[in-house]
């Protein structure tokens, strides 16, 4: 059995980490009137889902009230799942609460990126699945991300790539949910 492609493993680990929230630091006390804790310069928090990172959202992701990064994490979670997910499962995978997950799903349905399906085990529940358009967008973004990671790793040796892939995967596996 051949070992996985380090570039693909690194891109996948970065994608998994991108949706995870940082736990608050122990010194971050109750919010002040400006919404930040003691010693917190403000840039450390996620404001409304607008996270930065090495890969900005693609142009189609939009920057509306429920921003592109969370929507992209929703599509990636569905693409990585073995089947359709509930809204609660999506919220957990994306790192948002259930009401925000519901809004993201509704927005994605309206955009034609996902569809609702009846849950075969419980007729009162629905599951969320990618549409072909949603799958196409995830595939395109994954290719762009893989190209960016490959470019960033150009100066790395094969051993360094493999070690970085191993360590990032280990970090993503251990990151608190």
Global structural class: mainly alpha
Largest beta-sheet details:
2 strands, antiparallel
- What fraction, in percent, of the residue positions are helical? 40-55%
Strand content: 5-15%
Low-confidence stretches: 31-67
Radius of gyration: 18 Å
- Round the mean pLDDT to the nearest integer and report it: 75
Number of helices: 6
How would you describe the shape? elongated
Number of strands: 2
Characterise this structure:
This protein has 177 residues and is mainly alpha-helical. Helix content is 48%, strand content 8%. It has helices spanning 6-18, 68-80, 87-94, 98-110, 132-152, 158-174; strands at 114-119, 122-130. It has a two-stranded antiparallel sheet with strand order 1-2. The longest helix has 21 residues, at 132-152.
Summarize, please.
By secondary structure, the chain is mostly helical. Helix content is 48%, strand content 8%. The chain has helices spanning 6-18, 68-80, 87-94, 98-110, 132-152, 158-174; strands at 114-119, 122-130.
What characteristics describe this protein?
about 180 residues; single chain; about 10% strand; two-stranded antiparallel ribbon; 6 helices; mainly alpha; 2 strands
Topology:
Elements: H1 6-18, H2 68-80, H3 87-94, H4 98-110, E1 114-119, E2 122-130, H5 132-152, H6 158-174
Antiparallel strand pairs: 1-2
Helix pairs in contact: 1-5, 1-6, 2-3, 2-5, 3-4
């Amino acid at each position: 059995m051949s070992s996985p492609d380090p570039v693909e493993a690194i891109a996948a680990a970065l994608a998994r980490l991108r949706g995870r929230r940082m736990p608050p630091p122990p010194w971050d006390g109750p919010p002040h009137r400006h919404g930040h804790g003691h010693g917190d310069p403000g840039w450390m928090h996620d404001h409304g889902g607008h996270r930065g990172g090495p890969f900005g959202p693609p142009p189609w992701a939009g920057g509306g009230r429920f921003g592109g990064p969370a929507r992209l994490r929703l599509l990636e979670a569905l693409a990585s799942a073995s089947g359709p997910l509930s809204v609660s499962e999506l919220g957990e995978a994306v790192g948002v609460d259930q009401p925000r997950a519901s809004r993201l799903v509704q927005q994605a349905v309206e955009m034609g990126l996902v569809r609702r399906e009846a849950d075969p085990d419980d007729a009162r529940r629905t599951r969320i699945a990618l549409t072909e358009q949603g799958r196409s967008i995830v595939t395109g973004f994954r290719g762009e991300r893989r190209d960016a990671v490959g470019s960033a790793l150009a100066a790395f040796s094969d051993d360094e790539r493999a070690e970085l892939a191993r360590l990032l995967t280990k970090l993503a596996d251990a990151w608190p949910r």
